[in-house]
Structure formats: C-alpha cells, structure tokens
Design goal:
Keywords: Membrane, Transmembrane, Transmembrane helix. It comes from Gordonia sesuvii. InterPro entries: Permease_MalE (IPR030802). Helix content is 85%, strand content 0%. Helix 4 crosses helix 7 and helix 4 packs antiparallel against helix 9. The chain has 278 residues and is mostly helical.
Length: 278
C-alpha cells in the first residue's frame, strides 16, 4: 500500500510561485507562437479560398492610421533633429560635414523609422486590439462565436494581422520622409551643410535595399504586435481588471519583442550586406 508523501506549505508555495512566475511566461510565449503559426496558415487558406475579411481589415487599418498618424509625425521630427545634432557635432569635429546627410539618412531609414512605427503600433494599435478582443472575451462573445461555428482566428485575428502588417510600412515611410526632411532642414540652417552636399552624401550611402529592409522590418513588427494583442485579448479573464492587465502586458511585451527582433534582423543584415558607398 503506497503512502502519499506530504509536502510542506513552504514547498507548495514555492512550487506554485515557480510555476506561475517562471514557467508561466514560457507557456505564454508558446501559445503566442502557436497563434502566429495558426494565423499565418489561416491567412494562406483564406487567400486560396477567397474568404479574406477585407471589410474588417480595412476598418481596422483605418483605425490604426487614425490613432498613429499624428504621433508618427510628432515623433519623426525629433528623430531627425536629434540624429542631426548628435552626429553633426562629431562630424564637424572631424571636418567631414559633407557626410552628415549619409549619417542622418542611414540612421533614420534603417533604425528609427521601423522602430518608431513598431512602438507606435504597439502603444496605440495593439493596446486597442487587446482591449477590443479582451472585452469580447470577458463578455463571452468569443465563446458564443465558437458555439455558432465561427472561427475567431479567421474572423478577428487574421484581419487585424493584415491591417497591422499593411499600416506599419506606411508609417515607416511617413516617418522616413518627415525625419529626413527635418534632418535636412536642420543640417542646412544650423550645421552649415550645403543642400547639394547633403543629398549627394545621402544618395551615396542610402540605397533602395535599406528602404526595403525598413519596410520588411516594419511589416514583421506589425505582425508581431497584432498577434501579441490578439493573444492577450483572447486570453483575458477576470472582468475589466483582466482586460486592463492584458492591455498593459501587450504594450510591454510588444515593445520588448520588436526591439529584440530588430536587433536580430539588423545583425543578420549587417553580416550579409555590409555598408557600402553607392
């Protein structure tokens, strides 16, 4: 006859705390990866079957543009100004003012624009996605959809992924244009750089490949942000407080995720495509 081994309350508390705080994030990460894979497969199936929810995607894309356009403009100007001031001081000391356009364009296009687009979408767009789906979850609308045979991933997740992946590159292009123009204006008026010299160095170092990298990174960030927002929203529980916790977690996790992914993509790009003069 086997005897049940009794465990102390301290051990039970430690095991529960370890499972919740140490293993919980790992399980959440696994569910997020699973949702991303299922969403991509569902997107491919919807394209093949011609069943994409275009209306839902367009409505969500318009909402994302409306809440991020003005912040993107206000964020792009400081990016261009800060880069010009910081790099300009160093370049002036080296006597290479003609390279200011190259440095400003390189920093804004490859790094500032996609990161700013991702942060804006993570702060405004993903939080709205998490709040919307979280409210539907706690009101048991998601369960009702499953009961009626409607797949929430096809109906709700895929259109939001499409919208975020489409809006993020648009934001990146907008930030690039505003940031580069702001950097050009400051370089010409305060740094003593000639307009022709600025654009000549800009064109010598910046290339369409850099712009393509920025757009690809922005699209990837959009997909990541949308998946995280949907996952947090669909798993919300505990009423309004659970929805608020999901929104907060969405902003934090999405920001950390895009910074980490940006580091990996930039490292790979730098290894295979080192900086060259065009």
């Amino acid at each position: 006859m086997t005897q049940r081994v009794s465990r102390s309350p301290a051990y039970e508390a430690f095991a529960e705390n370890f499972s919740e705080n140490a293993l919980g994030p790992v399980r959440t990460l696994g569910r997020t990866f699973r949702l991303s894979i299922v969403s991509m497969l569902q997107l491919a199936l919807d394209i093949l079957r011609g069943q994409l929810k275009f209306r839902e995607a367009v409505v969500m894309a318009w909402y994302l543009v409306s809440v991020t356009a003005l912040p993107a403009f206000l964020m792009a100007i400081p990016f261009g100004v800060i880069v010009t001031i910081q790099i300009g001081n160093i370049i002036n000391q080296l006597g290479a003012q003609s390279l200011l356009g190259a440095a400003s364009g390189f920093a804004v296009i490859q790094q500032a624009a996609p990161l700013a687009a991702g942060i804006l979408l993570g702060g405004a767009g993903a939080s709205a996605i998490a709040a919307d789906l979280g409210a539907r979850t706690v009101r048991e609308e998601i369960d009702a959809m499953r009961t009626m045979g409607v797949d929430p991933i096809q109906r709700l997740v895929v259109p939001r992924v499409i919208a975020a992946a489409f809006v993020a590159p648009l934001l990146a292009v907008f930030i690039i244009v505003v940031g580069v123009v702001a950097a050009f204006y400051l370089a010409v008026t305060m740094q003593g750089v000639g307009p022709g010299s600025y654009w000549l160095s800009f064109g010598a170092f910046a290339s369409p490949r850099d712009l393509a990298l920025a757009l690809i990174k922005a699209a990837i960030f959009g997909v990541i942000i949308a998946v995280i927002g949907c996952q947090r929203g669909l798993e919300a529980k505990g009423g309004p407080r659970g929805v608020a916790d999901g929104v907060n977690a969405t902003v934090v996790v999405s920001t950390v995720a895009i910074i980490g992914v940006n580091f990996v993509i930039t490292l790979i790009y730098t290894v295979f495509f080192p900086l060259q003069i065009g």
